[in-house]
Amino acid sequence: AYRQAIAYASSLGKEASAGQLEEALGMLDEAARAYESILEEYARLQDAITGLRQTIATSAYPDMSAPLATMAEAQALYESTEDGRDKIGETIEKITEQENILKEHALLGQAIETAQNLKNEADYPGKADFAQAIAKAQAAFENPEGTDIQTVLRTLRQAQAAFYDSQYTAPAVAQTVSAVDYDLSGGVEKYVLRIDGRPFYMTNVQIRL
Asked: What string of DSSP letters covers 148-207?
């Protein structure tokens, strides 16, 4: 459409009427807007390709065949001389899917490193169970194909919390911290608030009889 608009405008001679010139300007304006739209769509695709390329470069994912194939497919679409705007949305979705897989894998690696550091620094009773949980997460990290990384992450974090809590070996016991003593015998003239068994006097809560 852009070439057609230029060709039409170029074909007009000096004798062109005002209507023809107006028509040519309208065609050029419409073609320019369409061209800007094309550039915006392909810019989105280029940004997605760049993001995936950067993620691949910093990823420790063991099998890069799927991300690399997706990037190659997207690059071919970007470099094609044909109008492939109808495929850009679907291609970006594929890129996002592969990028999310790599990012989740990286998060798992960071979580394993954090867990290892905690295990090495602390000597809590639950250390053996925590070590097993770390080993399972490490196995998933090294062979992530077909693994639900989110589930592995959640399980590791739960194991880390359990390891930290294992330092508190004494069972929790309910204790009364404060209570109001309603006993007015023995000449007592007001209710008494007792904290840890000792009276605590506050004039603004006294009840005079």
From this structure: -HHHHHHHHHHHHHHHHHTT--SPP-----EEEE----TT--S-EEEETTEEE--GGG--
Whole-number Å distance between alpha carbons of 97 and 118: 32
* 25-44: burial string, b at 16+ Cβ within 10 Å, e else: eebbeebeeeeeeeeebbee
The owner of tokens 């250390």 is 127
Tell me the pTM: 0.68
- Splitting the chain (209 residues) into consecutive groups of 10 residues, what average pLDDT does each group show? 64 73 71 77 95 97 97 96 91 97 97 97 94 97 95 97 90 75 66 73 55
Please state, in angstroms and rounded to a whole number, the distance separating the CA atoms of residues 53 and 86.
23
- Give the C-alpha separation, 198 to 196, whole Å: 6
CA 181 and chain centroid, separation: 54
Nearest-angstrom CA–CA distance, 113 and 137: 11
Helix and strand totals (H; E) in the chain: 6, 3
Closest CA to 134 of 121, 153, 148: 153
Structure tokens at 71: 């990037």
